[in-house]
Amino acid sequence: MWEYTDKVQEHFLTPQNVGEIDNPSGTGDVGSLACGDALKLTLKIDTNDIIIDAKFKTFGCASAIASSSVLTEMVKGLKVDEAAKITNEDIAQALGGLPKEKMHCSVMGREALEAAIADYRGLKLPMAEGEVVCECFGVTDLEIIRAIKESSLRSIEEITNFTKAGGGCGKCEEKLRKILIETVSGKSEISIPQIFPQKKMTSLQKIKKIEEVLEREIRPGLKKDGGDIELIDVDGDFVIVSLRGACKSCSKSQTTIKEYVEKKLRELVLASLIVEENN
């Protein structure tokens, strides 16, 4: 008998948003009845790219139902770009944790969300393009490598818990062991493609987005400590700023620039941005 948290039991016994949206903006179908777990997630997205509704249909265990239910609650009200950042660990954490043998249910939820967003954007998910390693559950090498890297997996048992690979006939065990060793040692020549590549922005779009993030996310925090920030220039991926007020004379100004300003701009604008202080 698995030990389920109160949150898992709540979402299993009284699941939220069960069903299917008519004329959905995006649909994600993952798993299969033959494998024992299947999930269909449908999203309704408005003209501002905000997810205004989410519904699911799941065939699976209590963890699969609970993961699907809590996921629909998590994404409603989020912009699509924000929802795309949700990981399986986020889903498990929202449930107060899952038994290690059931972590693949949270992975299935994340995969359904990615598939639904890809459908909405008219994109093809790259993970399915990998080489099938586990024929019983149709798991590819790309899916396995991604799970190893993201969740710091260190055993075949953990790979099975997160992906179900190796949980059937067991014939793929040697392949799993090889992938695990090569991935952990950094010798794997297989790279994980980006699920949702960032759209290329024009210079004007980039500057406008940077200014919006500075105003909405960064400046309020600095002002609380008597500081401020001014955008001086944007040259390619280099963002030149000037700290004002108390922040300008602070001995930790470089920490503020790199650990706060740069980190926030990379997260909300473009991952390749480099922030430097104007001298």
Note the main attributes of this structure.
Arc Repressor Mutant, subunit A; GMP Synthetase, Chain A, domain 3; alpha+beta; single chain; globular; 3-stranded mixed sheet; 3 domains; 279 residues; 18% strand; Sufe protein. Chain: A; 3-stranded antiparallel sheet
Short précis:
By secondary structure, the chain is of the alpha+beta class. It has eleven helices and eight strands.
The main sheet comes to:
3 strands, antiparallel
Structural class: alpha+beta
Question: Stretches where pLDDT falls below 50 for ≥5 residues?
Answer: none
Task: List how many beta strands DSSP finds.
Answer: 8
What would the average pLDDT be, to the nearest integer?
A: 89
Strands in their spatial order, largest beta sheet: 1-2-3
**Can you tell me the number of structural domains?**
3
Distance between the termini: 63 Å
Calculate Rg over CA atoms. 22 Å
